[in-house]
Amino acid sequence: MDNSICQVYEDEIQSLEEEIKLLAEKYEDSQQESTFFSDEEILMSIKSFQREFQGQSKGHESPSDLKAQLESLETDLSFLMKFTGIQFTSHSKKTVEKTTNRTVRKHRLSGNCHSLSFQLEFQLLEMQNKETVSAVITDLSIIMESGEDSDVSKFVSSTEEHGNLLTFFRSLSSYAEWYEHRRCTFLHFKVMF
């Protein structure tokens, strides 16, 4: 096992050395290219870039544009909360590990879906290969107030095992809606008798 760990480190060192070599070559190329331009041409390019950048940033930073974007986002969020019944009450994120091509973040979420509350804790492993980024959920832990319902406990255990958050939220939304209907129905019959 020690040899395999050493091999992994050696491979990583070799990869980093190759990356350093490529960056050094790019730097030398850019240095040579810049010598072909006069100081005046370089300054004109910089000023042109700054004007273009300032024009773009001014267009996005106008208070009325930001206010309109915020109102649109709030409307969308309100619609989603009404549609799904899911309302997040807190979220925290902490970076556990970060390398050049791999990031691990720990997330904690809590919220309500209709009258059921839930808490989630999971790690999100993001791996970057050249042009693509892939994300995998690990160490998913779900805490729900399901009472004595064994079906919910089985569902939660299965979801934790497979790490599928989309299935969890879809099922939670449907289950919580019907749970609320059942609760109201039983309350109605309690009042009658």
Automatic annotation (TrEMBL):
| Pfam families xref list | CENP-P
| GO process terms (BP) | CENP-A containing chromatin assembly
- Record flagged with keyword Aminoacyl-tRNA synthetase: no
What's any one GO cellular component for it? Answer: chromosome, centromeric region
Q: What highest taxon heads this organism's lineage?
A: Eukaryota
The entry's keywords:
Coiled coil
Q: Which residues form a coiled coil?
A: 6-33
Is this entry keyworded Coiled coil? yes
Q: What is this protein called?
A: Centromere protein P
- Species, as recorded: Spheniscus mendiculus
